[in-house]
Amino acid sequence: PILPKIDRAALLDQALNQAKALGKPLLVYGFRIEGRPMYRAPLVDEYMNLAVFSDPDLAALIRRRFVALRLFVDRSVGKRLGAYNGNSADPLFLKVVEPALFLLGPKGKVLHRVQRIRSFSPTWVRSLLIAFLTRRKIGGEGALTEAASKAKSMRDRIYLAEQLSLDGRDGDALKLLKSFEKSALASSKWKEMFVKTAAAVLRRMGRLSEALKLLDAAPGLRLERMRCLIRAGEFAKAVALVEQVPLAEQDSEMLWWKGAALWRLWRTREAIAAFSRAALGDGPFAQRAAAMLARGDDTTPLSPLAHDFEILVDTRVAWKKGSPLPSTSELGEPKNLKKALPARARAGLLYLLERQRPDGSWSDTRYAYWPAPKILPNVRVAVTALAATALLRWRDRLPRGQGALSPQRIDQAVQKAQAYLSDDKRLALGTEEEVYSEAYRMLFFLERLKQGKKAEHKTLVAELERLARRAQQIQDKNSGFFAHEYKNAFCTGAMMWSLYLAKTHKIQVPEDVTQQGVKALLSARRKDGSFSYGGSAKGRRGGSISSNLKNAAGRMPLCEAVLRAFASSDDKKVAAAFRNFLAHLKELERVRKCDFHSDGQLGGFFFWHSVFHASEAASFLPPKAQKAVHRELLRLVLSIPELDGSWVDSHELGKSYGTAMALLTLSNVAR
């Protein structure tokens, strides 16, 4: 049959029986969880397979220390694993979002879960699994330990050290190696074998400088040196190293690392050439290279590296005895928000600076719903405008210094972005999502205007007035709504906010555009203060007051503030919109990493849209209420950065978008 029935409960029982027999924990990889919150779950599943499970060191650890099961988590096993998204009324709803790792004891008890993974790092996952094994005191002492204590020959001791390390017992491996290091390095016969093993152990432990120093004693070990350089983020050195290797000696792994390093240096043509050669080989590195060449139905590469979801540098769990293990790829809430702000903002700014493409854009997005790749140019322009605006807002916020965050580096990035944003050929004019490319380009040029550079003033004013006229052209003449995919209040609110800010800077905005926009928003507002999802409220009847208020929570502050800005609302209505927003903020946050309408109308792609625009609209609140909103958003945003310093909501929109929105929000609430 096309859809054969699979008894997943039986699969889980079989795996548990095997784990019990072997005395090992069970690792269940939940690549899909029953329910509709994720409609493009295969994308993040591919990211896990390509970036995480294909790593030889991690694969060895899982194979040796766990029984592993790849499983679609349906209703029959979801209750046992604590994950089920098929019914919004179920207590388990959205407790876990894929991809997820479930770590079970032999008796079937779930001992730990790691879920909502959006930063794909094999070194982080490996360190987390080792911390889990250590904390649970699973395995450890055994035949390898006894063999290592009795081994006499240097060959046996080197071999056993490697086996200990592959078992995840890196500390024991290094201790064994240190016990005969001097004699090994003095031996012409065993020196290279020792260095190769010891350097790999040090690399697995994240002690990269020590590994690279040790490798100086064996110049021929170029592949291991390359691995260490990549994990250390020394991409230029890694490329220079492989270029010294004869072509005949460059296997798929070396070519993959070369391509990855070139890609991160934005030498993309050379990277594609390296991937093309690597893909001709066999094994996981050939497959990873092929994923950089193959295109999905959204016209973008399948690989997580192409979309900045794969972390190449060494990343690991900062776990201490007694502290909880991480349950997701986020850093978590800091103990002191004020102290954490500069470091986390700096990490986000560095992330953006390093991910800007040579053409000036930030183009990691895969936001092409259903998919419709024709919209991608407009999405890339919108994201680039947000990222460049974030850089401008933070240019003088952090302590000045040389190097990575110098104002000059930010200025160079902004200049490149401005050239990209000034070119209408970058857009798909008249196509869906243009409203956001125009609204957010206006935000960028307004930020430039606020810098007060006289030489650019006339040019910037002219550009802003041109964009305001373009807004008039794409507005629906009858209803006054703007549309991204369909006419709606939330994108109308975004455009109207940009037009309002333009008017405050004395930019000429066609009066009928704002009048029509106000008319549209008023038509979308219900008596309870909620705003219809699409079009006027009259055209979308139904729904209880409570569901309407929940569904509209993210768009209410923006839309109500716009009406207040154009004298069509009042302070009480704005305050009510924000009270409702804060009341449903947790529900909005829990769908953040979903890529579909996950809880009624709430979806991950609305998260940053809602949070950023609420942080802007809060300027219409009285000081006490504004402070409360700022405090809550500051806590929220600083609690959810990813391992690599980025922020993200729906994976389709990408990390550059999420990071830009987070930094813009922080610039508003951390004053």
Which fold does the CATH topology of the largest domain refer to?
A: Glycosyltransferase
- Please summarize the sheet with the most strands: 4 strands, mixed
Overall shape: globular
- Overall number of domains: 3
**Percentage of residues in DSSP E strands:** 5-15%
> From the 3D coordinates, which CATH architecture of the largest domain would you assign?
Alpha/alpha barrel
Rg for CA atoms: 27 Å
Give the oligomer, counting copies of the same chain as homo and different chains as hetero. Answer: single chain
Q: What strand order characterises the main sheet?
A: 2-1-3-4
**Level of helix content?**
40-55%
Helix count, DSSP H or I runs of 4 or more residues: 30
CATH class of the largest domain: Mainly Alpha
Task: Give the averaged pLDDT, no decimals.
Answer: 95
End-to-end Cα distance, whole Å, is 61 Å
Can you offer a commentary on this structure?
The chain has three domains: 8-136, Glutaredoxin; 143-307, Tetratricopeptide repeat domain (Serine Threonine Protein Phosphatase 5, Tetratricopeptide repeat, Alpha Horseshoe), CATH 1.25.40.10; 337-669, Glycosyltransferase (Alpha/alpha barrel). It has helices at residues 8-22, 41-53, 56-65, 75-81, 122-136, 143-150, 154-166, 170-178, 181-185, 191-204, 208-215, 222-231, 235-242, 252-264, 268-278, 284-293, 337-355, 376-394, 407-421, 434-450, 454-474, 489-504, 511-524, 545-551, 556-565, 571-583, 585-590, 607-617, 623-639, 655-669; strands at 26-33, 67-73, 100-104, 110-114, 482-483, 487-488, 597-599, 602-603. 55% of the residues lie in helices and 5% in strands. The strands form three sheets. A four-stranded mixed β-sheet has the order 2-1-3-4, with helices on both faces. It has a two-stranded antiparallel sheet with strand order 5-6. It starts with 7 loop residues before the first helix and ends with a helix. The model has no long low-confidence stretch (mean pLDDT 95). The protein is mainly alpha-helical and 671 residues long.
